[in-house]
Amino acid sequence: MRITIVFIFTFVFGSFHALVAQKFEPKDGKCLVFIGQDLEATGGLINYSNGYSDHFAPPAGITLYTNLSPGNASFGYYNKGLDGLKFKANWGAGDSWADLYLQDATYQNSAIAIGLSFVNNEKKVAKGTHDPLIKELAHWIKSTGRPVFLRIGYEFDGWEWNHYKRKHYLKSWRRIHSIFESEKVDNVAFVWQSKGVGSDQSVLEAWYPGDDLVDWCAYSYFGQPDEEMLVFARRHNKPVFIAEATPVRERDGLFFDSDLKKENLDKIIWQEWFLPFFETIKNNSDVIKAFSYINADWSSQPMWITNPTFQKVDSRLQESPYISEKWKEELAESRYIHASNVWWNP
Length: 346
Hints:
23% strand, two-stranded antiparallel sheet, alpha/beta, 27% helix, eight-stranded parallel beta barrel, 9 helices
């Protein structure tokens, strides 16, 4: 049973008292700004000083990744489990290290969104094999002293790359949720994320963990995302997090250059991708309450250089003076929430 709860927390940056229908949900018409998805992309850190936060106001939150998939390998990196939290990891898509954000003043008022993968391990998670890792994650999140948005098995319907089995995926979700409850982790919102295209309402319903286990719905916004998740979220009275977004120019299955550092092309990309993206947020302000922009040079990262979707993408805003100025103008609107005490308050 889902109920409205009054949350009273004290964080490292002060107290807040919020009466919300869902965990950490801002008011209608307000939207949290997150940035991801690796240390170079976000910047604002020692040794990572040419990213988003070195050119724009620090975001309300940052996006990163970890896993319950010990033994999985990616571009020469072998998972130990919970990689990228307490120690640095690189799966071929930039360095990831959550503790660096917690230790740096730039992000003292920023929440964290974690993409939690358990590819090839959903049966083990469901059976309890990885309970020690889940408890360690629960304790780490609790220790952060700030809101954490946990995207469990993100892009569950990306069967080409995640290939989750539905039965085990849903059992894994319930087990993770149950352990977090037993460990009394109050500063976590459970986020259920679709890949953002190709799954109709029947598929979403079949893979949905349930209203009592999900705080936010989410989807990815790359090329031509559909609005199925918005329909679904309204029906289930859940806020929506556009959990991954980056400019991909796609027509009829063909992908075109999306390199923001190329003069004149940046103007085309602003018209073709950024304007529709912001219009989507504005036209659905009753339900879209957060987005995470991936500010990365995809084309230089080993994971993506042969991927047809991202191999021609450099989405670093700071590389284009034109895009940078347009971005600042757009995000100066009062609807967008950045890193400050304001968004913690009702």
